[in-house]
Structures are given as structure tokens and as C-alpha cells.
């Protein structure tokens, strides 16, 4: 085993020992709670306009954006189904968080003003966990709907001020009121507004000013680092992310933090920046440190697997993905990635279990069916493979990149499938 592989192997062994130390009932409880929890409070699937592709996550995202301002509850349902159809969509999760926060004006005001009780509220923490999940998919994803959230807050503040003053609400005056309010707003609030409006230069300046006023706020450094990433300043992004990480390690644990602040997430961010720089050994070390911070941080296993594949170490890649799938048996995207890797490694029989489980966890997700069909076809199970290709086509968007392949395989397998019946 090379020097780069050793840190991950140590983490893997530690994780295995930790899991073995758990009583069997406790281990099953962890898995069942994780899997079942994702299926509670499922909203009814919203209807779309005639002709819309109801198998396309983008159609639900577009519809949610269309109704967000006037009906955030409906938008939240649209975004939920976008995330179900495409579990790899960080945008859908971020959009649902914004929509849910917009459903309650007093709660949003308390949240934006960093009221401790609001931030520690169970419902708010559940909503914020959507952002954390999105950031684990892509720590540098652009959160453009922050603008909608910010202006919803400002609009509510304007309406409250107008009512208290006994004045008529005037939408035409709203933008003037907001512009005036921003001139006296805190630097962090101005940074948030600029970031959401894609005014990244102004956001960087405002974050710098906010950091001068709040020198112990790791989140401000992290967010400034993400903004640097968006303008292509990767070295500055690295410096800010490392500063955020250092501050999180030093600060009093009693200080108020957001749900989506995490040392493991910051190490993940550093690993991605090092990968972009071509420093694969440094990136792998960063993912190892992420796991030292949080053994359950499965994205570090996923990235470790990707690095192993880049160096031709398929055994380590499979081991890392297996751990990711064990940690998150309720995440169909992880299960699909694991199954796809096993199929590519010539292990179609082994791929069946994670792919079948992904199909059960998320019945509307198309990709598990396509890959399961490939696994079955590789084993000579033509009829079963054809059935899975058809199931994929029933669920896949019209523009899905694999639709043409699936249609071709259904046609090619038809004679063999008939013989096997």
C-alpha cells in the first residue's frame, strides 16, 4: 500500500472497529432510522402544466421558481419532487430550504437576525440540514436563491414598518426602502445580498468588512472562500477555507453555529481545491482528515474512491465506496455510484444488492433501473434486464442521456427475452 493510501486505510479500519463495537440492534436502528426518516412527511406530487415532462427534475424546479414568491409552500413541494427525481441535485435541496424558510415570516426574521432560539429550533435545524446535504454534494455550489430569501425578509420588514407607521403598503416604494435599509445594514447582511445578486466583488468586500467586525466567525471566512471560488481565485478560496477550519477548531464549542458548519465539510472543500490543483496526495490527506473529524462523513469516502480510480487502485476504490454505501444506505445516489463501480469492475452480481436497494429507497429515481439492467444483462438474464430497461424508460426524463441506450437495449434484448419466458 502506498503512502497516500495509508491514511484512508487507518480511517477505514477505525470505522470497521467502531461498527463492530456497536450492538447489532443499535447498528440496525441506525440504518433503519436513516432509511425510514427520509420517507416521512412526503408531500403530494404537484401537477405540472400540460405537456410538461413529469419525469424531469428541471420541470419541477422551474415550476417551483415560478410560484416561489406567491406560494412558497407549493414551491417547497415542487423542489421536494425535483430532489426525489434527481437525488444528485444540490440545487433542488437548496431551493427547498429557501422555500420552507419563506413560509413563516416571523421565523424568517428571527433566523436572519441570528436569534439563538430560532437557529436552535428543531424545525429550523431540519430545514438547514437541506443546505448541509447540498454542500456535501458540492461545497462550492452557488446558492443563488439566497437573494430570494434576503428580499423576502426585507419585504416582510418593510410591510411591518409600514403597518406600524399606519402607512399604506406601496410595492413601488419597496425597492427604495430596501436600498435605504442596506446602507445601514450590517456588513454580513450586505454581503449576503451582494452574493445572491451575483455581485461577487461587492460580496467579497462586504465579507471582509464583516470579518473585521466579527473576528471569530468561521462561517464568514468559509462563505468568503466560496465566493472566491466562484470568481476563480482558488488560492484565496483555500486560504479562507483553512482559516474557517482553524477557527472552528479553536473556538468555544458553546458558541452559536449553523447546522451546515462542519470541520469535515471544510476539509472536503480543501480536498476539492487540492484536486483542482493536481495535488492528489494532498487531497487524499484532506479527505482522511475529514473522516478523522467525522467518521460518518461519507462524501470523503466517495472522493477517496474517485482518487483511487484515477491512480488505478480499483480495490481501494471499491472499498471506499462500500463504506460510503454502508454509512448512507438511504442515499440512492451513493448506492447507484457503488453499483455502477461494481458493474464497471466486472462484478455485476455484487452490484445487484446496492442497485436493488437504491430502487427501493427511491422508486421514482430512474438511474438504478438502468444500471441494474446492465448488471442483469452481463449475467445473461435477458428478460429481467429488458424489464429493468423498460422501468428506466418509464421514469427517465425525455432528455435523459441514457434514454437512447436503454431503447436500443430493449430492442436488442426482445428476442432473447421472449425465449426466456
Explain this structure to me?
The protein contains 23 helices and no strands. Helix 1 (5-21) packs parallel to helix 16 (280-293) and helix 4 (72-85) runs antiparallel to helix 5. By secondary structure, it is mostly helical. Mean pLDDT is 87; it is low at 1-39.
Q: What name does CATH use for the topology of the domain at 50-184? A: Serine Threonine Protein Phosphatase 5, Tetratricopeptide repeat
Percent range for β-strand residues:
under 5%
The tally of strands reads 0
Structural class: mainly alpha
Low-pLDDT runs of 5+ residues are: 1-39
Helix content: over 70%
Average pLDDT level: 87
Largest sheet: none
Instruction: Tell me which CATH architecture of the domain at 50-184 applies here.
Output: Alpha Horseshoe
Number of helices: 23
**What is the CATH level 1 assignment of the domain at 50-184?**
Mainly Alpha
Per the principal axes of the C-alpha atoms, what is the gross shape?
globular
Jot down its keywords.
74% helix; Serine Threonine Protein Phosphatase 5, Tetratricopeptide repeat; globular; mainly alpha; 421 residues; 23 helices; 0% strand; disordered N terminus
Summarize the structure.
The chain has 421 residues and is an all-alpha fold. It has a domain at 50-184: Serine Threonine Protein Phosphatase 5, Tetratricopeptide repeat (Alpha Horseshoe).
